[in-house]
Write a structure and sequence with these properties.
- It contains 19 helices and 23 strands.
- It is of the alpha/beta class.
- Helix 12 links the parallel strand 18 and strand 19.
- It starts with a helix and ends with a strand.
Length: 572
């Protein structure tokens, strides 16, 4: 036989052998097709016909006609049957450890989240909690989510309301905003608060209206910190880990593949680290330690900032500059229009920290390349944060640094501040659920002009700012489609449109929950869109948010959630 022919046959066999090995190497674990696959890659909607994943990452996103090169004998072919596939949601701001704590707390929320409409309802929920936990007479009872604006009495509960039913148990009611609480007499005594206790800097102990200096039970902002040792007292670690597993399942059921824990205390850090150490996290957790830990954590080598370890990452430091607008403790440049508890004149809320405090926190973080996240609801608080950012940059070097400093909430801000956000490279993370839950309250407290510019997402998009949006869970439910609905429609409980000019498109709303949120955390190269090489973090929906009537977006549900290519939730 001719040697050339032998060589040619050998070459052909080698070629096909090579093709077989390539085919095996490139074969996908799973291929999705048969529905709307929305990539979130462009400035406008882009779809592909198929998505192939392998070893937890996206192998291919494109035309169905090209699938043959990724389909192997063991490839699972997943027909979407008309459902919609999108990137998994990235939680821009919430409190997952607080969600775990809420498992053992009374739900004091008004409808539609809870069933409380009177102070008597609060008492009944606490009694039910006491029975459910089989609590002894000296054990703490905690309820969360009460909102005085939606109580029939139109006021905060008082220590006297609680003492009448719980004279022996220490009782705490956490306000829905997370910025104040009501304590009964036993709880006040254990916290060391009485008529002689002075208001702390950045906080108010509201007094009785009888002219005495006795606390009435309401403690706002930094005054509530006296109760933290009791609120954060951990259970045995195995029970804490069990709660974390339970709450992350709730997040996964909402399509969340990356969750946030804002303002993480040292006790909660231990719980997160223990859960991570036992490899119990199904989703990624981004924790933001609280600002009071700055000297312990920033510049000390204690933490590896920005690096995942068993799905847990410490991304930056979280500070709280002011309070809540519905609680009327958000720090404003112009006064509230309605009476404010604990204040009698020119009531603008107040800052929790001094400008010097905020300046030094920024400087410490910027000097050590630690990302800053700061809670700012009022425009005066936003002014403080911008000044601190400028102060720190002047000290350590200017704007060539990619800091992605994030202003959490950015609610009652001004148009001139949006210009500064763009100039300074600051990222607003908005909270549009306020337009529904407290939109009518804000109209009364702030007036139409300020309320209409609440969480101004359209202005941010028009300015080219990669803004995000969040639920602030446990303040409002984690439901991402209700959040999307509020950003698109901005309709209050009473049916009023809160800022017609700030409504955004459904696609923009999804950007804020996916690719923009990835950018906020420096993860846009691995998450937030469906692109070859990115993590296979996915959510399958029963309907396409871009193809339903805008009023129906809130009724969309998550059918399945996939993290790194593995299913972590399926709707029953």
């Amino acid at each position: 036989m001719n040697k050339g022919i032998i060589f040619s046959i050998s070459s052909i066999l080698l070629f096909f052998s090579g093709c077989q090995s390539v085919e095996k190497q490139d074969a996908a674990d799973t291929i999705y097709y048969g529905g709307d696959i929305l990539t979130m890659e462009g400035k406008s909607p882009e779809y592909v016909e198929a998505l192939a994943i392998k070893e937890g990452k996206i192998l291919f996103a494109g035309a169905k006609s090209e699938l043959h090169q990724y389909q192997g004998e063991k490839t699972a072919m997943q027909d979407l049957h008309g459902k919609t596939l999108i990137p998994g949601f990235i939680d821009a701001h919430s409190h997952i450890t607080m969600g775990a704590d809420a498992i053992n707390q009374a739900n004091l929320n008004p409808a539609p989240v809870g069933n409380v409409s009177t102070i008597a309802d609060i008492i009944e929920e606490l009694k039910e909690l006491k029975n459910r936990l089989n609590s002894k007479e000296d054990e703490w009872l905690v309820g969360s989510g009460y909102d005085q604006d939606f109580l029939k009495e139109k006021r905060h509960p008082t220590r006297d309301d609680l003492d009448a039913q719980f004279p022996s148990n220490p009782v705490i009611l956490l306000h829905t905003s997370g910025h104040m609480l009501v304590a009964n007499s036993m709880a006040l005594k254990l916290a060391g608060i009485d008529a002689k206790t002075k208001d702390p800097v950045g906080g108010t102990i509201v007094r009785k209206s009888d002219g005495s200096n006795e606390p009435n039970g309401l403690c706002q902002e930094m005054a509530a910190m006296a109760f933290m040792p009791f609120l954060s007292k951990p259970l045995p670690m195995n029970q804490e880990i069990r709660k974390m597993i339970q709450i992350q399942d709730y997040y996964a059921s909402c399509g969340i593949t990356t969750a946030n824990d804002g303002l993480t205390s040292s006790d909660k850090m231990k719980i997160l680290e223990a859960t991570a150490s036992e490899k119990k996290f199904k989703i990624d957790i981004i924790a933001l330690p609280m600002f009071s830990l700055v000297n312990e954590l920033v510049g000390t080598g204690r933490l590896k900032w920005g690096i995942y370890q068993n799905r847990l990452k410490y991304q930056g430091l979280k500070m709280t500059v002011d309070g809540s607008p519905q609680g009327k403790t958000a720090f404003l440049t112009k006064a509230y229009l309605t009476p404010v508890p604990g204040c009698n004149h020119d009531c603008k809320g107040f800052a929790n920290l001094t400008q010097t405090d905020v300046n030094q926190l920024f400087l410490r973080c910027y000097s050590n390349k630690v990302q800053v996240f700061s809670h700012c609801n009022g425009d005066a608080a936003v002014d403080m944060m911008i000044l601190a950012h400028q102060y720190a940059e002047k000290q350590v070097g200017k704007k060539d640094k990619d800091r992605r400093t994030t202003i959490i909430h950015s609610q009652i801000m001004r148009p001139d501040q949006m210009i500064q956000y763009k100039t300074e490279g600051l990222i607003p993370s908005f909270f549009t659920n306020h337009t529904y839950y407290w939109g009518d309250v804000h109209l009364a407290n702030l007036g139409s002009k300020r309320a209409s510019y609440l969480s101004p997402m359209k202005a941010a998009f028009d300015s080219g700012i990669p803004c995000t949006n969040h639920t602030d869970y446990t303040v409002t439910p984690m439901d991402q489609f209700f959040l999307l609905w509020t950003s698109v429609n901005r309709i209050s409980r009473n049916g009023k449109i809160i800022g017609k000019d700030q409504r955004i498109t459904p696609y923009q709303g999804l950007q804020a929950l996916t690719i923009h949120a990835a950018y906020q955390y420096f993860e846009e190269n691995t998450k937030g869109s469906l692109k070859k090489g990115k993590l296979a973090d996915l959510a399958i929906l029963n309907k396409n948010p871009l193809k339903v009537n805008r009023s129906e977006i809130k009724s969309i549900s998550v059918v399945e959630t996939i993290k790194n290519g593995k299913r972590i939730y399926r709707k029953k």
